[in-house]
Specification:
- It contains 15 helices and 22 strands.
- With 586 residues, the chain is an alpha+beta fold.
- The protein has 3 domains: 114 residues, 2-Layer Sandwich (Beta-Lactamase); 101 residues, Beta-Lactamase, CATH 3.30.450; 233 residues, PPM-type phosphatase domain (Phosphatase 2c, domain 1).
């Protein structure tokens, strides 16, 4: 053979047939598993190609048909974990083809699995028919799912393999987590929760809060107790039973007692416990301890009852104070007229309107006769209104009777009133002052002697029918009563002739506001009096009050209102020398 022929023969491909027994030996060789490389790789002849015959399908056709029909994903592996075969379900689970799956070891598909797992499986299967493990499986796209895996040995005609039967338990895990979360919530709930049987016996689940509420031993040591035995009223048990028999939920407050008889109060809810077929298998009982709230409500109701009683007493006291305050006002005016020797003849006429902002008020006036032709008129407006102001009014009213016995001059009158008033209220925690005006009308002289203590100046009509604020010097404007104990008050003199009128008022009417927060004011009061000056004295006052309420849009005032009108009426044929009239409060 020539050299060239020998070279061609060396490069030719040889065909070597390998029997099935030889193939088994090759597959069981140390380097058969792709996860284990031989320490010394065998040489790969460049000129020899080994072609193996097609391997038989594991287990035969019947076994393969059964494998394809198994619901779980199945890996068939050799004893070293190399995957020999799988079923269509595994391809769905792992998003891989059978060929892709069989290229890898079973450990490659289990997250965190090591060679120790196979050793443990082999050892366990030596004493047990199968082993059950749980693991996270990883798909080809790196997503994971929890699986329950049953591993067993399967003896086939050809060989013994390991069968890994994988079941996706994602839903079960989620359900277990929900159940666990729900159980923990029940265990840790502040409200008592228990499950009773159909007869109402607490023989099922009882959470710690319920055991504490009912005074039962904790855990499984609690004896079965009828829930009705914890109810203080049999009527409540009957109502609950009726609702549950009708398939309804009963809820409401109940009086209860613990196992040792200690009373407590709760908000209860009882519902039928239904199985999936809608059959009542028991009763779910929920209790919320409302003892503290119940006791607080009882205490609140007790306080409310006391408050109502106290309010009734105060209302009665205020009504009596109102009656007394109205008693302080003149029910009839004194008859004051000129003496026959006076240059001008006539008499005084009076009218008033009194409208307190509250049941009692702080406005007040008094008419004190000192002779048949002269009179002291006093008007005051105590700071604020209500019971406190009315108390100050009563104090002032008591002082007037004693002061008028010592002086009839308006200046000294106010000075003594201020000094006495200040000494009485000096110990009060807060300042209580009052504006006041005092005048002495002497018809025989035809004069008004006037002193003022921070009160609005009166409105005076002139003989020509006009009306204006009284013209008094600044020196006659003294400080309010109660501000300065040693204050003095000067007087001014105002002519007063038959046909003239003088009007005193408190600032409750001038400070009345409309929706735009504008005050009625003295100018509007003057205009309303001017328009009604020709009317009788009571009607003139009513017209002024109507003008103020029409301006404010309300029939009530935020502060007390008092109007006092005085008229020097000339004598008329057939009329008495003096006439008294009064207008009641609206």
């Amino acid at each position: 053979m020539s050299k060239e022929e020998e070279q061609q023969k060396a490069q030719a491909t040889m065909r070597i047939d390998i029997t099935p027994s030889m193939l088994d030996e090759l597959q069981q060789a140390p380097f058969a598993s792709p996860r284990r490389a031989p320490a010394h790789p065998a040489p790969s002849p460049a000129v020899i190609r080994i072609v193996a015959p097609a391997q038989k399908t594991l287990g035969g056709a019947d076994f393969q048909a059964l494998l394809s029909s198994v619901y779980d994903a199945v890996f068939l592996t050799d004893l070293s974990g190399h995957i020999l075969s799988t079923n269509p379900r595994a391809e769905q689970f792992f998003n891989a083809t059978k060929a892709e799956i069989c290229k890898r070891n079973v450990l490659d598909w289990l997250c965190g699995a090591t060679e120790d797992l196979l050793s443990t499986i082999q050892t366990t299967l030596g004493n047990n028919r199968f082993i059950l493990i749980q693991a996270l499986c990883q798909r080809t796209d790196s997503s994971m799912f929890p699986a329950e895996i049953s591993v067993c040995r399967i003896k086939l005609a050809e060989r013994t393999v390991l069968g890994f039967f994988l079941r996706d338990i994602t839903w079960r895990k989620e359900a277990e987590e929900r159940i666990k979360t729900g159980y923990n919530a029940l265990q840790n709930a502040a409200s008592g929760i228990a499950v009773a049987d159909v007869d109402g016996n607490l023989s099922g689940y009882i959470n710690p809060s319920m055991a504490t509420l009912l005074g039962l031993p904790a855990g499984d040591a609690a004896p079965a107790q009828p829930f009705a035995s914890f109810l203080a009223s049999p009527d409540a048990a009957a109502a609950m039973a009726a609702a549950l028999q009708a398939g309804d939920t009963w809820s409401g407050p109940v009086d209860m007692k613990r196992l040792d008889g200690t009373p407590f109060y709760a908000q209860a809810s009882l519902s039928p416990n239904l199985n999936p077929d809608g059959v009542t298998t028991g009763i779910v009982v929920s209790l919320v301890d409302t003892t503290s709230e119940h006791l607080a409500q009882q205490q609140l109701e007790h306080y409310a009852t006391q408050l109502r009683n106290r309010n009734r007493e105060m209302a009665a006291d205020l009504q009596m104070a109102r009656d007394l305050q109205y008693a302080f006002l003149p029910a009839a005016y004194p008859a004051i007229s000129t003496s026959p020797a006076a240059p001008a003849q006539g008499s005084l006429r009076f009218a008033h309107i009194y409208s307190p902002a509250a049941l009692v008020g702080g406005d007040f006036f008094s008419v004190l006769p000192i002779s048949s032709s002269s009179v002291i008129v006093f008007i005051a407006d105590v700071m604020g209104h209500g019971a406190r102001a009315s108390l100050v009014v009563a104090t002032i009213r008591g002082l007037l009777e004693s002061i008028v016995k010592t002086t009839t001059s308006p200046g000294p009158f106010l000075q003594r009133l201020n000094a006495t008033y200040s000494s009485i209220f000096a110990s009060a925690n807060e300042l209580m002052f009052a504006s006041a005006a005092c005048l002495r009308i002497d018809l025989d002289e035809g004069l008004i002697h006037f002193a003022n203590a921070g009160h609005p100046l009166p409105l005076c009509s002139a003989p020509d029918g006009d009306i204006a604020t009284a013209n008094c010097p600044n020196s006659a404007h003294g400080s309010a009563i109660g501000l300065f104990p040693d204050a003095t008050y000067d007087e001014c003199t105002i002519p007063f002739r038959p046909g003239q009128r003088i009007l005193f008022y408190t600032d409750g009417i001038t400070e009345a506001q409309n929706a735009a927060h504008e005050e009625f004011g003295e100018d509007r009061l003057l205009a309303s009096i001017h328009d009604a000056l020709a009317q009788p004295l009571p009607d003139m006052l009513s017209a002024a009050l109507s003008a103020a309420t029409g301006f404010s849009g309300s029939d009530t005032f935020e502060d007390d209102v008092c109007l006092l009108g005085i008229e020097f009426a000339p004598p008329a044929a057939g009329d008495p020398a003096a006439e008294a009239s009064s207008t009641p409060a609206p």
